[in-house]
Amino acid sequence: MDWKVYRDQVNAAVKDISAANPDIVKAYAGFHQASAKSAHLDAKTRELIALAVAVTLRCDGCINAHADAAVKAGVTKEEIVDALGVAIMVNAGAAMVYSARTIDAYNSKTE
């Protein structure tokens, strides 16, 4: 994937969204600005969390944007791999929990 081309495509679509309803994009930007003002987490930690969440959500646009921000924040590849390990572990855990829910739903139909 050419991540720069993809970012440009997403940005063009966001401009279209903003033209149709600028409040949506302003509200989204407000979330980003509020998070960036955190007095408790540094930029590296926020970007590591963002990348792990992006993987969990399967959002290429988020991966692209936060990989760029992570580099700018000084995040190392090793730190990213550790954060992704947490995302992998949580996703496996979530699959286990929802598998248990599935068995529960099945059992409720057969009892």
Structural description of this entry:
This protein has 111 residues and is mostly helical. The protein is 86% helix and 0% strand. It contains five helices and no strands. It has helices spanning 3-20, 22-36, 43-57, 60-73, 77-110. Helix 1 (3-20) crosses helix 2 (22-36) and helix 3 packs antiparallel against helix 4 (60-73). The chain is extended and about 55 Å long. It starts with a helix and ends with a helix. The relative contact order is 0.10. The model has no long low-confidence stretch (mean pLDDT 95).
Q: How many strands, which pairing sense, and closed or not: the largest β-sheet?
A: none
The structure class reads mainly alpha
Q: How many β-strand runs?
A: 0
* Helix and strand sequence: HHHHH
Task: Write down the Rg.
Answer: 18 Å
Secondary structure: helix percent: over 70%
> In angstroms, what separates the terminal alpha carbons?
49 Å
Q: Ranges with pLDDT <50 over ≥5 residues?
A: none
**Portion in beta strands:** under 5%
* Multimerization status: single chain
Number of helices, where a helix is a run of at least 4 consecutive DSSP H or I residues: 5
In round numbers, the mean pLDDT is 95
Shape: extended
List the helices and strands and how they pair.
Elements lengths: L2 H18 L1 H15 L6 H15 L2 H14 L3 H34 L1
What are the salient characteristics of this protein?
111 residues, mainly alpha, 5 helices, extended
Quick synopsis:
With 111 residues, the chain is mainly alpha-helical. It has 5 helices and no strands.
